[in-house]
Amino acid sequence: MTRSTINSRSIEGIHSIDATGTVTAAGLTVDTDTLHIDSTNNHVGIGTSSPSRQLHINNASESNIRLQGGSDYAELRVKDADNAFSFHFGGSEYMRIDSSGKVGIGASSPATGLHITGSDNLSSSLTLQNTAPSPDNIWRITPLYNSGDLAFFDDGTERMRITSAGNVGIGTSNPGKSLEVAAFGGAPGIRLRRTDITNSDVDLLTGGGSTGKDFLINVNQSEAMRISADGNVGIGTASPQKPLDVVSDANDFVTVGALGLGINEWTGIHFGYRENNANYRKSAIVFERTDLTASDGQGKIHILNGPQGSGGSATLADAKITIAENGSVGIGATSPSSLLHVYGTNPVIRVDNSPSTGAFGYAFYRGATKNADITWNEGDANLKIKNYRNDANVIYGNIDFHTGGTSSSTAPDLRMRITTDGNVGIGTTSPGNKLHVSGSFKVEDGASSMLFQEYNNGATIWLDGADGDFSGGDYYGIHANNTGGFGIGYAGASTFNINSSGNVGIKNSNPTVPLDVTTAGGGNWVAQFQNTTTATSYGVNISEPSGATAGYPLLRVGQGFSPYTDFLRVNTNGNSAFGGGPSSVARVNILGSQDKAGLLMKRTFYNWFEWGGNPGGAYLHIKTGLYAGGGATGNIAYTMSLFEIKGYTYNAETIDTMIGFHNWSGSYSQLVIQNKGTRAAGSNPYTSSDGYVVLVVNTGTNYPGITINWHQAFPYSFRDVGVTAYSSSSSSGGVY
Asked: For residue 687, what is the enclosing H or E element?
């Protein structure tokens, strides 16, 4: 050694120490803090002279512990820059614990308490294994490569999956809903159980029925309800036949009731139309509690139907049929006084006991006096409808309608008869036709007449508004033919037809679509809908396409009729046009004068202005309807505008210019002009003498043509204005 000092606390400047046996010292320091042994606290420090733990390693930037066996080694590192504790093997990091306690395996910046990252399914998985069972269970949670799904495996078999869309699948790897439970050959289901109550299992199952597609609800392993594959709901039955099929035991009830129903309160079942609110429930069968004779819950049954003329739902006031507590039935009467009580405006209908012989039926009374009856007579087997019963002149099997009786001794006169063969006679007792009117059967107003008869094996009503003779060409017919069709025509022809399928034909006796209009070919108009309140008619005209001319317009919308101005036209190719004829190649063709905007989409005018020609000056001044300021009021139409100008000149120049500005109180703030074409066409805009924005485009003079799109950025209101004037000049300003 070159220099040495040995005492009980330190060894300095010693290259090596050889000792055999036991070396005892109160403390040991090597090179100040390279190695320090604190014998008082039994702490060892490396890189620190004040170790606070049994082994304390300190370094200003990074502290490492390496464990090496042969060429393989592992390291534990604490790096000041990372502020983390990391585990390395062979120089590569495999695990890290950061300063917040988060653990990363394969993740250098763990985002959660345990963050596992890998380049394949297995290296990014979390495996849980319990070795106690035999065989043991190995569970694995794996984020699947390239799919974004999370899968749960049991001994290598997938049991559950959560997809990247958030759907959960149990028994399926491709769940199509938020929760999908699947099983092969069984009945997949969900069980709900309250653990503090026995026999509280509720199972939701699918896979029942002959098709394996029924949905079941079991309570304590017994079926309580089923929805079959065809949508029928069964309660108490495993084979529901209707949308709702409820089956009870014999001598038992299916109950519809209300808890705590008071006197004059009701509950029931609604039938018919409804909306998704409390409106339009017009019909119902309800029970009204009355406790008529005792507090025993008795009451009435009502059939409700109404109210009329509003969207309201039925109440007890809309009762049309009532069964009282004693079994009496009321029609229009909510407190019937007889077995059948019909109430209207004054009359009462009463059904009496039928005698074994003679006539019996319905009798109409006013008080105690009988006024009319409908009777069947045992002697002649005729059904008679009379305003007063006292007619002995009857024909067997006929239905007779009598009027004119003034007392019980005066027989009323026969007015109408329906014979046994179905003929109806008015004014005759022996009708020879289905309708036989003895006397004049004519609806007439002046020279106009109406006639009923059979025509072409169908029923026809003829209307003659000219002379009533039903000849010539001055009468109309309404026809119902023997095939279920309906028609209206002129002079024997049927121009308007409706067939049994509900299709309507105009000049077409066999319509095949809901509206089938037929006319001659070529350019004849099929239909016109117009507003005639103004001098010029506006509306929709549908023109029949010509078979010989492809692209003949099918639909035209515009004004006038002859001549006709198109606003919209759609041809047989499906191409459409606004302001003219459709293109042969473009689906939409927008035409118009060059100073009219072509298409507005949200806040952008496409083809807002187009222009071309051989101008006398190189600068095109475009005066807009956009107010820029000036005068006492200042600017009231602020915009943040971008005008996109594209074009071409005969000098083989391209124009691709954008002009953007914020027009603010007469100025053009944040003005930007960008020229991308071979011709620098952008020039500064200016304000006209009356306060409007004027765009200036340097088009040149050799047959230029341009198109302008206008985009208005937020936040200002959209300005729906166009071009009010334009002209060319050799000067870039002062035209307007």
From this structure: strand 686-687
The string over 485-510, giving b where at least 16 C-beta atoms fall within 10 Å of a residue's C-beta and e elsewhere, is bbbbbeebebebbbbeeebbbeebbe
Looking at the chain, how many residues does it have? 736
Domain limits, CATH 2.60.40, in the chain? 594-729
Give this prediction's pTM: 0.36
Class of residue 463 by CB neighbours under 10 A (exposed 0-12, middle 13-18, buried 19+): middle
Cis peptide before 51 (omega within 30 of 0): no
Task: Indicate the SS3 state at residue 44.
Answer: strand
d(CA 587, CA 533): 34
Q: Does position 394 have pLDDT exceeding 60, yes or no?
A: no
Q: Show the tokens assigned to 389.
A: 């019963």
Token representation of residue 265:
């309160």
pLDDT exceeds cutoff 90 at 497:
no
| 502 CA to centre of own chain | 29
In angstroms, rounded to a whole number, what is the distance separating the alpha carbons of residues 328 and 531?
A: 61
**Cα distance between residue 537 and residue 564, in whole Å:** 10
Query: What's the rounded Cα separation, in Å, for the pair 231 and 233?
Result: 6
Distance CA 102, CA 511 (A): 77
Q: 13-26 pLDDT, tens per residue? A: 555 566 566 656 66
Angle formed at CA 22 by CA 18 and CA 26, multiple of 5 degrees: 100
> For all residues of the chain together, what is the average pLDDT?
79
The b/e string for 17-46 (b: 16+ C-beta within 10 A; e otherwise) is eeeeeeeeeeebbeeeeebbbbeeeebbbb
Q: Three-state DSSP class for 317?
A: helix
Among 481, 669, 705, CA closest to 594: 705
* 591: pLDDT strictly greater than 80: no
User: What is the SS3 string spanning 179-244?
Assistant: EEECCCCCCCEEEECCCCCCCCCEEEEEEECCCCCEEEEEECCEEEEEECCCCCEEECCCCCCCCE
- CATH entry 3.40.50 includes domain 594-729: no
By DSSP bridging, strand 458-464 and strand 449-455 are antiparallel
Whether the pLDDT of residue 619 is over 90: the answer is yes
pLDDT greater at residue 100 or residue 391? 100
